[in-house]
Amino acid sequence: MATIVGMEVLDVRFPTSRELDGSDAMNPDPDYSAAYVVLHTDGGPDGYGLAFTIGRGNDVQAAAIRALAPHVVGRAVPEDAQALGDLSRELVGDSQFRWLGPEKGVAHMAIGAVVNAAWDLAARRAGLPLWKFAASMTPEELVSLVDFRYLSDALTEAEALGILRAAEPGRVERIAKLEAEGYRAYSTSPGWLGYSDAKLVRLAEQAVADGFEMIKLKVGGDVADDVRRLKLARETVGPDIRVAVDANQRWDVEAAIAWMTELAPFDPYWIEEPTSPDDVLGHAAIAKALAPIKVATGEHVQNRVMFKQLLQAGGLSVLQLDAARVGGVNENLAILLLAAKFGVPVCPHAGGVGLCELVRHLSMFDFVAVSGDDTDRTIEWVDHLHEHFTDPAVVRGGRYLAPTAPGFSARMHDATLRRFRFPDGPEWTETPSE
Amino acid sequence: MATIVGMEVLDVRFPTSRELDGSDAMNPDPDYSAAYVVLHTDGGPDGYGLAFTIGRGNDVQAAAIRALAPHVVGRAVPEDAQALGDLSRELVGDSQFRWLGPEKGVAHMAIGAVVNAAWDLAARRAGLPLWKFAASMTPEELVSLVDFRYLSDALTEAEALGILRAAEPGRVERIAKLEAEGYRAYSTSPGWLGYSDAKLVRLAEQAVADGFEMIKLKVGGDVADDVRRLKLARETVGPDIRVAVDANQRWDVEAAIAWMTELAPFDPYWIEEPTSPDDVLGHAAIAKALAPIKVATGEHVQNRVMFKQLLQAGGLSVLQLDAARVGGVNENLAILLLAAKFGVPVCPHAGGVGLCELVRHLSMFDFVAVSGDDTDRTIEWVDHLHEHFTDPAVVRGGRYLAPTAPGFSARMHDATLRRFRFPDGPEWTETPSE
Q1: CB A14 within 8 A of CB A32
Q2: What's the whole-number mean pLDDT along residues A364-377?
Q3: Are strands B47-53 and B33-41 parallel, antiparallel or unpaired?
Q4: How many CA atoms lie within 13 Å of A47's alpha carbon, on the beta-carbon side?
Q5: Is A252 within 8 Å of B150 when comparing Cβ atoms?
Q6: Can you tell me the distance from the alpha carbon of B180 to that of A353, in angstroms, rounded to the nearest whole number?
Q7: Pairing relation of β-strands A33-41 and A4-13?
């Protein structure tokens, strides 16, 4: 039996703030970054995971991952649901480390990175892409991966088992469908705040030509600008392409309602992150006021307890799971089960560094083994930084192709790690930073 | 004008897990710790602050504080509300660092430690204890310290100003009252889970003899044990002393209601942390089911947005502010204003390392300048680790004495810092850890 013999953690940063890619109302100059973890083994493949950040503080995130090494180094390589559940329980259950969250922020993202690296390892050893590896588990095994603590008033273990068993018939057909057709994507590329109107129009036209059925625009800087940009986008793509908007937490509750009321004539499909990701009741008030415009959130929703409440309160109608914000595959399975219980579509947050690579596995696993449904589901697509990954996400005709390489796709090229290591990689030493 | 010329951050840990002091249902073996920050200046006193943790991960917390140095080093020593507001806004507003929270967990506690150290510095330079320094500011100055983002649906700046103006008359008399009588305390010392029944009875008797009007017991390990221990405590202290219980997040919603229903015959005053601190709706359901038993929470409530919702939803009837969990004095002022708006008493969480030292200032400031009221308010008291502080909290006759030394009281003795530094202090190198 192989053993994890070492954990390596790297601070990797891309100088994206030099362009305006990624600019929005709350994040004017992100340097997309990853606290990158490698689980080295004494036989067979290594495992790769990451936490995504946007620059300063990525070293703190890396330190948090390193702090988990005693739980991992010396451990048998996990190969099945039992071992992957045990690891997650041990990490989340460290009573001293737990104080730093609990189950939120830097400490929780560190757990997520390690748990995801362990899943990568297990899937590589099984010779399967993560989505197929997870979908090869029985409903009983899948339920054993989930921490139901704090969920039972909304979702019991028995209910979860029922959901998973109901999705057992048809797994094979849905896998075949994904392999043939992929999974629906939408494009955020046209909509960054820093782009000119001409660039917005050009990229929106391109998105439609490329087969995307939805695009997304960043809003929240200036309401007159947003009205002009959304009107332009709507005129460019016509009435049948969905246009979502994303405020990146810019507003208070009343401001969100007022601002979106001005944008409503241009038929926005959803408003994403209208306010603080912590404000369950605020999201519920906004959702009620703005219906039928949908409310979407998730990239900053810290854990399953917050998603539970957002669902209970009617605070979201689109759940934007994030691969690297919560406690890894295990907690994302809990979140997929909650969404299935409440009948809310999951449309993952992606972009960033490696998020497209990771979330495609989660959506495809959901379609095969959890919700069994892809109606109104779509995965964010930003065509950015994929060249740094050994198993990059690929979108064709507006759809994510099903990944086929073993693992969870977080591995970066060695050349990338050397070049973009912060602060000592040549990308940072050879050119002035900021 | 003096300048902050350096920031020093120390990982300080006390081996409290060798005894069972501090043991509860979720934290069986804490090593009470502080990520301790010193702001060095080129003239006049230095400033001291800390984040409290319970052991593993304290190094991560220290790294997060260090990451804030570029915002602080080289800055003019803050002396007034304007400068203290500017610092808080700059730290919370760092758009890259914000991704690590936002405004929660390790990153946010780091901001709190630095902001509190800056307040310590300002109060020392003013020659006043923090509570008096803050209470010397005008309502307009106090309001300028607060970040109202995400609060306006529950508390506007104008409402906050109204609350502060209403408390202006009588400030002098209330200061005099605090200096004469101190501020009510309650004792957690009898109630740790690891203590025997005999020790519980002995310490409960002692608490009453010492003048405390309330004691608190940890619960949530075993229901039969809890019934026996609460019955014993009630028999020991009689009907007129309040007995609160604290589950430290042990339960799901339905379990909390069922468990507390078994304890109800012994008249518990409040149930503290019945479930996840993130579960606003869960707290509301528990509060509704258990009334008139009060629901208390706060030590793990991550920021003002969560407190806002707990108040909006009726999820707490006692607000347990924590000096070192949120973004420092500025955010705690927002939380005091929210509590005043909703008419909920603030009973701070203390114990830990330095929390008693810090929170007494916040409660006294609240009494003088915010709520103007001390009805049903009481500050937790744990007689533990105070000897390490240069301006230790002192309780006499069940009341916190008003501190008189300039500053915010987070400073530790140099000998303590040398001895308990982790991992290289003699406390850790000379005796086996764990």
Answers
A1: yes
A2: 98
A3: antiparallel
A4: 31
A5: yes
A6: 59
A7: antiparallel
A218 is catalytic: yes
pLDDT tens readout for residues B347-401: 999 999 999 999 999 999 999 999 999 999 999 999 999 999 999 999 999 999 9
Does A192 map to a domain?
Answer: yes
- Return the CATH number at A375: 3.20.20.120
Q: Which residues lie closer than 8 Å to A93 by C-beta, 6 or more apart?
A: none
| Domains contained in chain A, number | 1
> Does the annotation count B218 as an active-site position?
yes
pLDDT tens, B125-184?
999 999 999 999 999 999 999 999 999 999 999 999 999 999 999 999 999 999 999 999
Contact A57 B107 (CB under 8 A): yes
Question: What number is the ipTM of this complex?
Answer: 0.97
Q: Is residue A401 part of a domain?
A: yes
DSSP line for A266-287: G-EEEEE--S-TT-HHHHHHHH
- Band (pLDDT 50/70/90 cuts) for residue A432 is low
d(CA B229, CA B374): 30
Rounded-to-integer distance, Cα A58 and Cα A12, Å: 8
Distance CA A261, CA A59 (A): 41
Is A40 within 8 Å of A46 (Cβ atoms)?
A: yes
Residues of B in contact with A312 (CB under 8 A): 281
How far is the alpha carbon of A61 from chain B, nearest alpha carbon, in Å? 8
Domain of residue A261, residue span: 171-415
The token duo for A351 is: 């972009």
Residues of chain B positioned with their CB less than 8 A from the CB of A97: 56-57
B49-67 pLDDT, tens per residue?
Answer: 999 999 999 999 999 999 9
Burial of residue B434 (number of CB atoms within 10 Å: 0-12, 13-18, 19+): exposed
| Residue A220 identity (one-letter amino acid) | G
Residue B274 lies in a domain: yes
Question: Is residue A150 a part of any domain in this protein?
Answer: no
Closest Cα in chain A to B325: A100
Q: What are the residues whose beta carbons fall under 8 Å from the beta carbon of B352, sequence distance 6 or more? A: B32, B52, B54, B324, B382
